[in-house]
Amino acid sequence: MSTDGWRNFGLYGASGDPGNVHGGVALGRALEDALERMIVEGGVKSPVTTRRGLTARMRYLTTTKAGPQALADAGITASRSTVRAWTRGTRSPRPANLEAIDTAYWNLRARNVMANPAALKQHLDRGGRGTTMEIHPINQKVVHAPRRRDNLRMRRLQIRYIWDDAVDAMIANDLPALEDAWDDVTAELDSDWGAYTYVSHVGLGT
User: Fold this and answer.
1) Which end of the chain is less congested by CB atoms within 10 angstroms, N or C?
2) Are 72 and 97 in contact (CB under 8 A)?
3) Residue numbers in the chain where pLDDT is lower than 70
């Protein structure tokens, strides 16, 4: 694809694949994936249907400030004594309540992790060492043949210093700020930067 094709994205057919997006959009999605992994991987591993899994969830929900509201939002209407019995393991919730407890736990954990973006920033910054980023070029099969750049390949870069601003932009759903962060990423590609303004996927080695 020629340079003017990157400036006027879609002029030569690249927008025919909805997976071809601006790098700022792809970066935001990659950050959302990283945040989701942090939520899941740092959470309780045992299923809620096991005593260990239930106890861990109930302790989190009953010792975290917003826990009671999370339970209520998930549809739990049990009395305090019943909730205490679930937490102590002396009574077992019905299947519907187990599902609601699981929902309350993950919703609360997600809110708490998102309320502390510093953890994700530190995870990606790694003490200044940064995070490996894989940049996959657009699918050029939809591009008009004379305008294709078939020499494009997946690029792997070690990205530093953008993470504070990028995470803030992702959480705020600030696409212009994500696009600015993407400009910083593509600057690492020197003269090839324009070919990766739009991409098919961005992966983070987290």
Assistant:
1) C
2) no
3) 1-19, 140-151, 206
